[in-house]
Amino acid sequence: MFVVYLNRLFKKDLGMSFIKYYTRLRIFKSLELLMNPNYNISEIANRVGYNSLPTFSNTFHEIMGKRPSEYRKSKQVYFDD
Q1: Do the domain assignments include residue 6?
Q2: Residue 4 carries which DSSP code?
Q3: What is the number of other CB atoms lying within 10 angstroms of the CB of residue 2?
Q4: What is the domain count for the chain?
Q5: C-alpha closest to that of 68 among 80, 17, 46, 81
Q6: What is the pTM of this model?
Q7: What is the pLDDT of residues 56-80, one digit of tens each?
Q8: Three-state SS for 10?
Q9: Contact (CB, 8 A) for 17 and 11
Q10: HSE-CB of 4 using CA atoms within 13 angstroms
Q11: Which of 41, 66, 71, 74 is the most exposed place for a label (fewest CB within 10 A)?
């Protein structure tokens, strides 16, 4: 009952559920990690709490509109300098 109440307050203040907020937080953290070419995408998925690479990739795509590998390639300019 208390959890439902807290989630309702969270949603009222931030406009999204705690789960949705936490998911976005994990994906936004992965954006930082994708800028580091020393980490492969499986490692990044694991570091942000995903045990399944397909789940991470699908969630990333839902939020960012690109797959993690596509996002990394679009930022490749920074790696080449």
Answers
A1: no
A2: H
A3: 6
A4: 1
A5: 46
A6: 0.84
A7: 999 999 999 999 999 999 987 555 5
A8: helix
A9: yes
A10: 1
A11: 74
Q: What is the DSSP string of 13-68?
A: HHSS-HHHHHHHHHHHHHHHHHT-TTS-HHHHHHHTT-S-HHHHHHHHHHHHSS-H
Burial 35-44 (b: 16+ CB within 10 A, else e): eeeebebeeb
Nearest residue to 73 (alpha-carbon basis) of 41, 50, 29: 41
Do you know the residue count of the chain? 81
Structure tokens at 18: 């705690």
Q: Directed axis angle between helix 53-64 and helix 18-34, to 10°?
A: 100
Query: Is 2 within the bounds of a domain?
Result: no
CA-based nearest residue to 18, from 10, 27, 29, 28 = 10
- Per the structure, the complete domain to which residue 22 belongs is given by 17-80
Q: Is residue 3 assigned to a domain? A: no
Asked if residue 28 belongs to a domain, the reply is yes
